[in-house]
Structures are given as C-alpha cells and as structure tokens.
User: Which sequence fits this backbone?
C-alpha cells in the first residue's frame, strides 16, 4: 500500500506504543492520550490499511498476524527518526555561531574565546564577522554582539560595555608638531576618516562644537581595526574605542592624548533570539561573557 499525504502518521505512533507495551492504557499514559483516543487512532489505522492489527479481549489486547508483521518495522522506523533528530540536535548543540564586527572580534572577543573553549570542550565556536546587522530569521547564527540601544524586537539583550571613543595616534606623528597638548592640535594633523560621525561628537565634548572637517580629504577604511592600523603606521589621527587598543598603547605604538571620552549612545550588547534563550550553549556563552564584564567594572555603565 502506498502512503498518501493524508495517511494518519500519528496513528502509527500510537500503534507502535500499544504494540510495544501490549496495552492501550499504557500507550495512552506514555503519549498523554485517553484510552478512547488510543482506540480511535488504532481503528483509524486499521481502516486505512484494511487490516485488523489487534485482537481485543477483556482487559487484554494481542497482535494479529498483520500486526506482528507491521510492529517491528514501525518500531525500526521510529528508532531511525529518533536517531536522526538526536544527531541533528547534537550537531546544533556542539557548534556556537557568533556574529560580530571584525574590530570587536579581533580587538576584544578573540582574547577570551580560547578560554571559553577550554572551559567547554564540547562546544566548537564559529566566528562570523561583518559590518552588517544580521537578521536571525534569515542568517544562521546563535548569538551576536552588536551596538545600539539594546532594544530589538524578538531578541534578548545583555549589556556588555559602553561604546565611547577618543582620538588616538602614533607617538611619532605627535612629535612632528611638538606633541598633542590641546584638542586644537588634532586639527594640525591628518585625520583618518574625517566623515566619521564620531569626530563632531568628540570635538563637541572637548569644547569645540564648531569644528568643520568637511574640507578634509575623504578616507574610509570600512572598519575601525583598519583605521587603527593606519594610525599605528603614522598615517593620521584615528578616533577609536580605547579599550580595544590597550596592547598598542602598552607597546608604544599608539597614544591617547586626552582623557576626554565621548559616546553616541550605541553601546555593545550580547543578543540572541528569545526562542533560543534556553539552549545550553547560549546560556554557557552568556554566563561566560557576562562574568568577564563583571570582572572589568570600568566598562560597566556609569
């Protein structure tokens, strides 16, 4: 008999349980059905197949010859399906897909991923970087680190760090003008990406709200990490997030001439779909990264 789209597949599940336990009552308890519902599903299957599958006796059922032929094959089929689902679940649970920007990944997150994997050896990490904000309904991913207000429909968000910024440059470039002592000194040097919206915000915070950079040569590098590399090479002054470049400062490749920090209100957040909030790998990564932030109180909101 060829199975049609209208074949009562749920009745097969009921039959498999009843045949395995030789009891309509126990099948109902296992599947959360009444005995009447179990009897209905078995009768529906028998009518569909044109074969009697059980002999009904008072307080006892036994398989007919047709039932005996069908039962082991159906049990095998459900076992195969269960294995397939378990295999998919194990693969999904074993890989954590993280989306973030190239700058955040290379300058901050990469410092800690090794520790996360040492603590959770059963979870592989796949890091995807992009300047675009991903849509979890269209792009495969488990968590993302993005900047913004922290409010996105359908997503659970956890605050990570303030997104503040300040000018940074190489000490050699600063020496070409005798040092950078005041915010006005920045204007004596080449500015990397003068069209960046962070510049007017920072100059306003530094007491220079009327600075106009529109006449400056345009230069766009596409990612903050590239702008930082250009600054290290002495090609100009970049406006950067200082927490990302502590190593460069320690090694003397960059300096932060002012303590003045500005923000555009777009802070960094860990986000993931609400529907995935109970997945073990997501909970483990969330707890791990939030503990790191708790250990770095200087990055918590003031």
Assistant:
């Amino acid at each position: 008999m060829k199975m049609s789209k209208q074949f009562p597949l749920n009745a097969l599940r009921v039959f498999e349980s009843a045949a395995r336990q030789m009891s309509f009552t126990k099948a109902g308890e296992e599947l959360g059905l009444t005995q009447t519902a179990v009897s209905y599903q078995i009768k529906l299957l028998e009518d569909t197949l044109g074969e009697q599958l059980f002999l009904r006796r008072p307080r006892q059922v036994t398989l007919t010859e047709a039932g005996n032929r069908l039962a082991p094959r159906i049990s095998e089929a459900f076992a195969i399906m269960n294995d397939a689902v378990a295999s998919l679940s194990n693969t999904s649970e074993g890989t954590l897909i993280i989306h973030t920007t190239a700058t955040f990944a290379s300058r901050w997150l990469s410092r800690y991923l090794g520790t996360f994997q040492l603590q959770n050896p059963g979870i592989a990490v796949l890091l995807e970087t992009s300047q675009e904000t991903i849509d979890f309904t269209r792009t495969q991913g488990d968590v993302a680190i993005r900047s913004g207000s922290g409010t996105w429909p359908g997503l659970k968000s956890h605050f990570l760090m303030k997104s503040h910024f300040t000018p940074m440059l190489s000490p050699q470039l600063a020496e070409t003008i005798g040092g950078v002592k005041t915010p006005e000194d920045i204007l004596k040097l080449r500015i990397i990406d003068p069209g960046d919206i962070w510049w007017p915000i920072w100059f306003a915070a530094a007491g220079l709200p009327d600075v106009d950079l529109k006449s400056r040569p345009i230069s766009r590098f596409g990612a903050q990490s590239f702008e930082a590399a250009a600054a290290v090479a002495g090609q100009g002054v970049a406006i950067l997030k200082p927490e990302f470049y502590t190593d460069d400062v320690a090694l003397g490749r960059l300096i932060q001439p002012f303590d003045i920090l500005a923000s555009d209100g777009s802070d960094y957040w860990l986000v993931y779909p609400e529907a995935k909030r109970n997945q073990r790998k997501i909970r483990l990564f969330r707890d791990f990264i939030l503990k790191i932030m708790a250990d770095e109180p200087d990055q918590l909101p003031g």
Notes: Residues 112 and 289 are 8 Å apart (CA to CA). The radius of gyration is 31 Å.
